[in-house]
Amino acid sequence: MESLTALLENLWSPFLQPSDSRVYYPFLLSTLILAIGFYLFTITTTKSFRHLIRYLFPKSIWWHTSAQVDYQLFVFNTIIKVLLIVPYTLSHVQFMWIVVNWWREGVGWQEQPLVLNPWVLSIGYTLIFLLLADFSRFIVHYALHKVPILWQFHQIHHAAEVMTPITLYRIHPVEYFLIKLRNMLVFGVVAGTFYFWFQTSISVINIYQIHLGVFVFNLLGANLRHSHIPISFGRIIEHFIISPAQHQIHHSKATKHYDKNFGSIFAFWDYFFGSLWLSNKEEKIVFGIVEHQQSKLKTLWQNLYQPFVNLFKKP
Predict the structure, then answer these.
(1) 9: closest CA among 85, 87, 69, 93?
(2) Which candidate, 194, 216, 180, places its Cα nearest to that of 120?
(3) What value does the mean pLDDT of the chain take?
(4) Is the N end or the C end of the chain the one with fewer CB atoms within 10 Å?
(5) Helix (H, G, I), strand (E, B) or coil at 289
(6) Tens digits of per-residue pLDDT, 75-101?
(7) What angle do CA 118, 121, 126 make, to 5 degrees?
């Protein structure tokens, strides 16, 4: 009974409890407002409330067989999270102390810690955490595409033929583990390093316990990245911030769009690595992967076992 309660709490907590989850309800509300604004200012056909609802929530997308797999993987990975939540939480703190000990063994314990104005320290910690976290996401994402073994698991995400905000959770459990491992490493390195040099507890600047940068990013339409609504930020801003339209290009079937726009928040990582692609409202994007792989990833169980089949089959 306790396990069932924990599962239900974890299913609803991303939507209802303050967290950096994109589907936390204030972010979904801001997404809805932006989507309505896009509809009002860009759709040239006759507008009505009924047409708006059909535009935002078309059954052909939200109840597509691909979207149903998204929902199923969200539940499946939540079950895994329930099973691993305690060791996962402890690992963050443990790795932070490992980093502290690395510093201690490398440079010796600092009798006199560095002293900075608390606000300067907090701002620095917040910015460094945001930049390192985002760059690590870029590197992991880059590797998921470029390393053949990892791509077998990541293509589950790209096999989405339609996209909704829940498509964010369409990931194989192996990739889910890699994401959690990345989170642990970033937290440990940043928190451990700051604690060693300043010997004081530091918190990021936050709103409702959510990192300020992540809060703003999620508030400004992060959910629309996995959607049919191609909001662009314009050519200048898209050199710095990945827009929803740019991430939709990342999911494109078109060969010219392969391995483009790996970034999560910041676009300049893609610029430096030569993978930046700006959005163009004239381009029509079709989501998915090559057909011979797409046809093997139609159900939940196919998405779970097919990567292993691909790894062990003969060339």
Answers:
(1) 85
(2) 194
(3) 91
(4) C
(5) coil
(6) 998 888 777 655 555 587 888 999 999
(7) 125
**CB environment 286-304: b (16+ within 10 A), e (fewer):** ebbbeeeebebbeebebbb
DSSP assigned state of 165: G
How far is Cα 201 from Cα 194, in angstroms, rounded to an integer? Answer: 8
Q: Which residue type is seen at 120?
A: V
pLDDT tens per residue across span 37-75: 999 999 877 789 999 999 999 999 999 999 999 999 999
Whole-structure pTM value = 0.92
Write out the two tokens for 131: 């930049």
DSSP characters for 199-247? -S-----EETTEEHHHHHHHHTTGGGGSSS------TTGGGTB--HHHH
Round to whole Å and give the CA distance between 68 and 258: 25
H helical segments located in the chain: 2-16, 25-42, 49-56, 59-62, 65-107, 118-146, 148-158, 173-198, 212-219, 244-250, 268-273, 291-294, 300-312
Query: Which of 307, 287, 285 lies closest to 296 in space, CA to CA?
Result: 307
- Name the DSSP class of 256: G
Q: Model confidence at 108, in pLDDT bands (50, 70, 90)?
A: confident
CA dihedral 28, 32, 35, 40 (to 10 degrees): -170
Q: Distance between CA atoms of 246 and 86, rounded to whole angstroms?
A: 36
Contact (CB, 8 A) for 69 and 82: no
Q: Which tokens in the block code for residue 19? A: 């967290």
Q: 187: closest CA among 94, 86, 109, 77?
A: 94
Q: Say if CB 303 and CB 73 are below 8 A apart.
A: yes
d(CA 116, CA 198) in angstroms, rounded, equals 8
